[in-house]
């Protein structure tokens, strides 16, 4: 056993670094609780605010994803230049207050504005976290760290359903509550306060205990100073690998569409199709997400590492298209069976495979992108992914339900149609993307070898070059 003074660098325990990952997971858990709890309260919110399925989908998906996506780029630009923990902590505080503000909503417009603010706050978390993880850990541990961080989304989603179900059960005997300075609130409005405000404590812990890691592999200018990279530089890098990023961004976005369709509309499906109460639905789906989705994230990361050990430099893309192909049948079958037990069995399989891309999509970007561009390139991906996956996907289900079938009871058929199209597109694009991704890694490694003898370029070696070394 090595003492701290004799331990080799490669054997470093990274105790503090893993503490930071845990804190980031905690923040991610709260972000998904605040984001996802809305889905469980669909029926009382629709009733009290007089909404259609399409309007509700705009609150759940489009309002959040629009500003989450649009604000992601400027926030990532700041994260590539300034202290990342402070930016992330400010985002946590903002989305926590905005979630509580959802509980004050008296109309569609009020709720829409609050959900946009939730999106702005959450846009600060993942790009900055991905960038910090890439600086905290050696390359062989980045995929594992990102995979563990990614667990936070489904832990948060599961807890959102469990806590939401518990709060609904706790408050079911009282329809109206009176709070000082606020006045009367319905049970669903009070729920937003209960799940939102504790996030302020997470923001405080984050800003007090997380330090910004030294940035690795920074490019230098002719005078030997760290080179400042503009957003236009990140866009040029994406353009130089346009085929790779097209397959990555769009392929993973359609994969996300399948996942968000499941997460956004499965509560309504079970309440309408099988007559479950919100409490029963919350407990059931909370357990499913905590078991199936978290296991799926772990197995997706494991498959990625297994493929890398066998020399597959395209492992993130390959693991993702395998997951998409396996997701196709269960994502459709769970809405078409007449038995609740059989439906749940198919749902567990669908949720498991739907979780594969969370660690793999991020690992692929961090391996290819230069340091100063990581947060911006991640934010660009989140922009595309959330607009297509969350904003468009959840709304398409509602539009098909309202305009094609004309009945809320047909939401299962709408989910099956959208999932079928999205998953096929995802699998095809990610499969094609494997060869494009390999070519991009080889090109970056080749360019790094050519410039290796030039002192100025020594610090500018792309992080992706080490992947194929």
TrEMBL record:
It comes from Caballeronia novacaledonica. It holds the Pfam family MFS_1. The chain crosses the membrane at residues 16-33, 54-75, 87-108, 146-168, 188-210, 246-270, 282-307, 319-338, 344-365, 377-399, 411-433. The lineage of its organism: Bacteria, Pseudomonadati, Pseudomonadota, Betaproteobacteria, Burkholderiales. This is Major facilitator transporter. GO terms for molecular function: transmembrane transporter activity. InterPro entries: MFS, MFS_dom, MFS_spinster-like, MFS_trans_sf. It comes from the Bacteria. PANTHER family: PROTEIN SPINSTER, SPINSTER. It is found in: Membrane. Its main location: membrane. Keywords: Membrane, Transmembrane, Transmembrane helix, Transport.
């Amino acid at each position: 056993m090595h003492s701290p003074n004799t331990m080799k660098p490669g054997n470093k325990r990274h105790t503090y670094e893993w503490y930071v990952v845990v804190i980031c997971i905690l923040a991610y858990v709260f972000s998904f609780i605040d984001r996802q709890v809305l889905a469980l309260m669909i029926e009382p919110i629709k009733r009290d605010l007089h909404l259609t399925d399409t309007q509700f989908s705009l609150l759940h998906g489009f309002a959040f994803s629009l500003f989450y996506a649009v604000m992601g780029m400027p926030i990532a630009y700041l994260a590539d230049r300034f202290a990342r923990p402070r930016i992330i902590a400010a985002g946590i505080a903002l989305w926590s207050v905005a979630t509580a503000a959802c509980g004050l909503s008296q109309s569609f417009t009020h709720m829409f504005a609050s959900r946009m603010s939730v999106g702005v706050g959450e846009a600060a978390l993942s790009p900055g976290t991905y960038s910090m993880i890439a600086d905290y850990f050696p390359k062989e541990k980045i995929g594992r760290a990102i995979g563990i961080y990614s667990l936070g989304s489904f832990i948060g989603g599961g807890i959102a359903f469990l806590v939401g179900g518990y709060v609904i059960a706790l408050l079911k005997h009282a329809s109206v509550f009176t709070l000082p300075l606020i006045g009367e609130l319905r049970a669903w409005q009070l729920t937003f306060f209960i799940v939102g405000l504790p996030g302020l404590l997470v923001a405080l812990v984050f800003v007090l205990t997380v330090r910004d890691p030294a940035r690795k592999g920074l490019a230098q200018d002719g005078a030997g100073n760290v080179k400042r990279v503009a957003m236009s530089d990140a866009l040029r890098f994406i353009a130089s690998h346009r085929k790779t990023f097209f397959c990555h961004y769009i392929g993973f976005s359609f994969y996300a569409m399948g996942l968000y369709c499941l997460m956004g509309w499965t509560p309504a499906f079970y309440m309408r199709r099988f007559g479950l109460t919100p409490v029963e639905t919350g407990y059931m789906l909370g357990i499913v997400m905590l078991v199936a989705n978290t296991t799926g994230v772990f197995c997706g990361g494991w498959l990625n590492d297994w493929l890398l050990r066998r020399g597959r430099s395209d492992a993130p893309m390959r693991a993702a298209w395998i997951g998409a192909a396996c997701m196709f049948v269960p994502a459709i079958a769970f809405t078409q069976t007449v038995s609740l037990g059989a439906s749940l069995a198919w749902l567990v399989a669908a949720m498991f495979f739907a979780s594969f891309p969370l660690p793999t999509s991020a690992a692929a970007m961090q391996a290819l992108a230069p340091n100063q561009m990581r947060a911006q390139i991640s934010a660009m991906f989140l922009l595309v992914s959330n607009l297509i996956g969350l904003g468009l996907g959840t709304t398409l289900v509602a539009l098909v339900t309202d305009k094609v079938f004309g009945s809320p009871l047909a939401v299962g058929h709408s989910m099956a149609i959208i999932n079928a199209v999205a998953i096929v597109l995802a699998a095809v694009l990610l499969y094609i993307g494997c060869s494009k991704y390999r070519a991009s890694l080889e090109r970056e490694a080749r360019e790094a070898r050519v410039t290796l003898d030039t002192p100025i370029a020594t610090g500018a070696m792309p992080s992706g070059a080490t992947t194929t070394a």
